[in-house]
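Quick log. Single chain, no ligands specified.
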Amino acid sequence: MKLPLKIILVNRLAKLFGALVKGLSIIFHFLFPKKRFTIPTQSNPLVKAKKDTKIPKIIWQTNYTNRVSLPVYCNYLFNRLISPDFEYRYVSTEDRLTFIKENSSADIAEAYEKLTDGAAQADLWRMITLNHHGGIYMDIDAHAVWPISKMINEEDEEVFLLNKEHYTNYFIASAPENRFLTKTIETIVKNIQDRNIGRGVYDLTGPAAFNNAIGEESVNHRYYKITCIQGSFTNEHFQYIDKPRGKWTHAKKENLLKD
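-> predicted structure:
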């Protein structure tokens, strides 16, 4: 695959800038260990969109808190600046549950409440939210490498992210009522009901469930290096600065579901 040089250049520059931010943040948080920055729960577009698309111009993110370290806040700012024609919405842990109870069936809400890990909850919430509202979901440590409006065409129903061998769920763009998201929700709920935990979060609610739902069907997608990447600005320490070992990779699979 021949990758667009200009996008790869922005990718590399973002990584270099992100590495600088991480380096300076070590000093900053050493000097100011309690300092945190607030990501807003909602932010209007900075500029007017030049075209309408089937995929709503909303960036969705969630985290265990919106009081974040400097690198995570810089990651947020980068996304706002590179896609200024998008609205931004941050959803808290509490608001995720409220939304699901108000907009999902009893079976889905019951399955969600059985999850004990925040990342697993976010996996299911993002599918439900995008299927209901539409928009772009990105993990809190992920950032676009090119203006999103230039990567999404007017008639696109979805843009999924291809990461080497499979589709990943840290970036998902979709119009409402997408059949692949509907099937993913059904797959995750069945996994929870059957306690089909597999290797852990990855299988129960994460990319494995997403890919199983897609199967062999053809979907509109982009390669991750020219779309969205993770970890340029932040790392596990800075992302979970107030919640050590809070990353989903530390969750024991036997504790992922309530009895």
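The first helix runs from residue 5 to 31.
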